[in-house]
Write a structure and sequence with these properties.
The chain contains 13 helices and eight strands. β2, α2 and β3 form a beta-alpha-beta unit. Helix content is 44%, strand content 13%. It has 292 residues and is an alpha/beta fold. Strands 7-6-5-4-3-2-1-8 form an eight-stranded parallel beta sheet. It has a single domain, classed as Aldolase class I (TIM Barrel), CATH 3.20.20.70.
C-alpha cells in the first residue's frame, strides 16, 4: 500500500494537554484537534514524541487513540505512534492498541540502547511483520542517540509493510540519497519544521510537524504552496515562521509549542516531569512574537 497520496502535505504530531494535577486533558485535546483540522492540515499523528509519550501509561495511550478517532470522526487520516526501545513490548502494543481506524503506524527508531544498523533493521522487520497497518520509520538521532543511515532506510524500504519514513536527521545529503534511491511509492516526509521547506524542494512529500499544532493554517499553506512547485511564494510564507521555529525548540519540545498554544488559549501550559514549561525569558519572546 502506497501512502504517498494519502499522507502528502502536512501532518501534525499532536501534543498531549495536561491538567494542573498532571491528568490528561481530553477536552483540551479536542480543542487542539479542531484547531488543526480547521486550519487545513492533511492528517494528524497521535502519540508521537511531541505527545510526551515516554510519560504516558499504556491505558492513557489507548484512551488518547480512541478519543482522537472520535474527535477526528473520519475528517482526516490518523497515524498512530508506537515506538520505543523494547522490541517485544512494541510487538505487544501492536496487538492491543486500537489500530482499526489508523492509516499507518509511526515508529521511532530505538533510543538510548543504540543498536547497530543491523539491530535497527531487524527491529523494524519484526514490527513490519506483526503490524496490521503500514509502518512509517522515524529517524530522529537527536532524540535516539543513533542515526539510521540511508543504506538501512533503503534496505527497510524493500520490505512489504514498510511504507515510508519521517526523516529528522537534519543531514541533507542523507535525505537526498534516500530520495534518489527509494523504491516507487515509498513516502519520505520531513521531521524538522525548520527544514521542511528546503526538504520539500529536494523532493519530500511533506512534513510531520510540531509547529502545525500552533500555526496549522500558515504552516500547511506554506507546505501546499511548496508542493505545487511555487518555491518563491512558499519562501515568503515560510520566512515569518522561522522565528517561531527557533522559539519552539529553544529549550525542548513540546515546551516551546505548548507555550504558543497556551497563549492562544488552546490548552493550559502544563507538561509532565521531567519536562518543564519554557523559562520566563523565552516565554516572553513567544508573547512578543504573537503580538506582532
Amino acid at each position: 500500500m502506497s501512502l504517498v497520496s494519502v499522507l502528502r502535505g502536512t501532518g501534525v504530531a499532536l501534543v498531549t494537554p495536561f491538567k494542573a494535577n498532571s491528568d490528561v486533558d481530553l477536552e483540551a485535546l479536542g480543542n487542539v484537534i479542531e484547531h488543526v483540522i480547521k486550519g487545513g492540515v492533511e492528517y494528524v499523528v497521535t502519540l508521537g514524541t511531541t505527545g510526551e509519550t515516554p510519560t504516558l501509561s499504556k491505558e492513557e495511550k489507548i484512551a488518547i487513540i480512541q478519543y482522537t478517532y472520535e474527535k477526528v470522526a473520519g475528517r482526516v487520516p490518523v497515524v498512530v505512534g508506537i515506538g520505543g526501545n523494547d522490541t517485544q513490548s512494541l510487538l505487544h502494543d501492536l496487538e492491543i492498541f486500537p489500530l482499526d481506524k489508523a492509516v499507518a503506524v509511526l515508529s521511532a527508531s530505538p533510543y538510548y540502547n543504540k543498536p547497530s544498523q543491523e539491530g535497527i533493521y531487524q527491529h523494524y522487520k519484526m514490527l513490519a511483520e506483526k503490524s496490521p497497518k503500514p509502518i512509517l520509520l522515524y529517524n530522529v538521532p537527536g532524540r535516539t542517540g543513533r542515526n539510521m543511515t540511508a543504506e538501512t532506510t533503503l534496505r527497510l524500504a524493500q520490505l512489504p509493510n514498510i511504507a515510508g519514513i519521517k526523516e529528522a536527521s537534519g543531514d541533507m545529503g542523507q535525505c537526498m540519497q534516500i530520495l534518489r534511491d527509494r523504491p516507487e511509492g515509498f513516502l519520505v516526509v520531513s521531521g524538522d519544521d525548520a527544514l521542511a521547506f528546503p526538504q520539500i524542494c529536494t523532493g519530500m512529500e511533506g512534513v510531520i510537524s510540531v509547529a502545525g499544532n500552533a500555526f496549522p493554517k500558515e504552516f500547511s499553506d506554506m507546505v501546499r504552496t511548496a508542493l505545487k512547485g511555487d518555491m518563491k511564494s512558499a519562501k515568503l510564507q515560510n520566512d515569518p515562521l522561522i522565528e517561531a521555529y527557533d522559539l519552539m525548540f529553544a529549550e525542548n519540545n513540546p515546551a516551546g509549542v505548548k507555550a504558543f498554544m497556551a497563549e492562544q488559549g488552546l490548552l493550559k501550559n502544563h507538561l509532565r516531569m521531567p519536562m518543564l514549561p519554557l523559562s520566563a525569558p523565552i516565554h516572553e519572546k513567544v508573547k512578543k512574537y504573537l503580538s506582532k
